[in-house]
Amino acid sequence: DFNAGLAIAVVELTAASVKHMEKKGFEINTPFRTFCFTAESERERDEWVEAVQECIVETLSDYEVAEKIWYNEANRNCADCHAPHPEWASINLVVVICKKCAAQHRFLGPGISQVRSLKLDSSIWSNELVELFLEVGNKNANSFWAATLGPEEELHIGASAEQRATFHRRKYRERKYRRLLDGLSSQDHLNQALCAAVVQADVLCSMALVFSGADVMCATGDPTHYTPYLLAQRAGQRLQMEFLYHNKHSDFPKLEQGREGSCPADIPLFMDGFLFCSAPNASKATLDRRGRDAEGPLGCLPLDPHPLFACVAEGPGSTGPPSTLCLCSRGPLGWTQDPIHSLPV
Question: For 257-275, what is each residue's pLDDT tens digit?
Fold first, then answer.
């Protein structure tokens, strides 16, 4: 500002980077020059760094894909929390999601959700993939994933990270709200239905089958076209091929696995998805709610997708602090009494 006697410089942020410096400072590095700044507080510095990072991302962004995806009105809001103008997507689940939900999708792992940016990962957005997202849309995707989701369980824009983590685990890993398919009582029935569906134009049917546990790489009985993908290719179904391609490494529970891994009714909810550390004198067999109330967990760690229970036991003849962390697995009949692994602590 010439009148105020302040120098103004335009910093080109293309190919730039920003990092924290000591105390209240931060540094912007460009290919031509390095700029050092000092904020009035550490909080203000963090705000500046975050703002600069967002600007750097914008210089690398390509809105062409996003504009195409948003052409379907259902894709203009996040499939999970309904935030406007979502800029991320799960390319195997075929849902468009916001930045905060994308972070939780990544925690689910690539076997459940493969997250990509609409603006940064332009190279993966083929015409067929864009067409698939336009054909499906968040509304149709949620007709399967959120078929039984009640208003009281919906995720809202202002939800915390913990609330989001719980919701996404229930929705996509546990498939708690999904639409159940009638008349498919075995894995073979699911696989046969998938082989019949992929040669038709209705990709939503194939999605429901795969997300219900149909095997994308199942044997078709055709020696030449021996996978569902090859059947779709023979039938000229491009969108079916695109969907199957992005789900070839998906790991949704199969029908038999889902039955074996179902959570027994007597397993307390507080253990679900966590590794718990109980009091030193807790017995390894004390895995019921009374034991929880009596001893109380000393700490817990997220442990998905296989919830385990941990007991800390004292070493033989020891009067000091607990020395061993014992892990017990959960099977079809409940929790095992013998530890599957022990760790020194």
Answer: 545 444 443 333 333 444 4
What's the N-to-C CA distance of the chain in angstroms? Answer: 61
The answer on pLDDT for 210 being more than 60 is yes
Q: Structure pTM?
A: 0.63
Q: What does the buried/exposed string (b/e) look like for 154-173 if buried means 16 or more CB atoms within 10 Å of the residue's CB?
A: ebeeebeeeebbbbbbbbbb
pLDDT digits (tens, 9 = 90+) for 82-118: 999 999 999 999 999 999 999 999 999 999 999 999 9
- By C-alpha distance, which of 306, 338, 341, 304 is closest to 324? 341
Measured N-to-C along each axis, helices 203-211 and 187-197 cross at an angle, to the nearest 10 degrees, of 160
Nearest to 159 by CA among 147, 174, 171: 171
Who contacts 148 (Cβ-Cβ below 8 Å, separation ≥6)? 176, 177, 178, 179
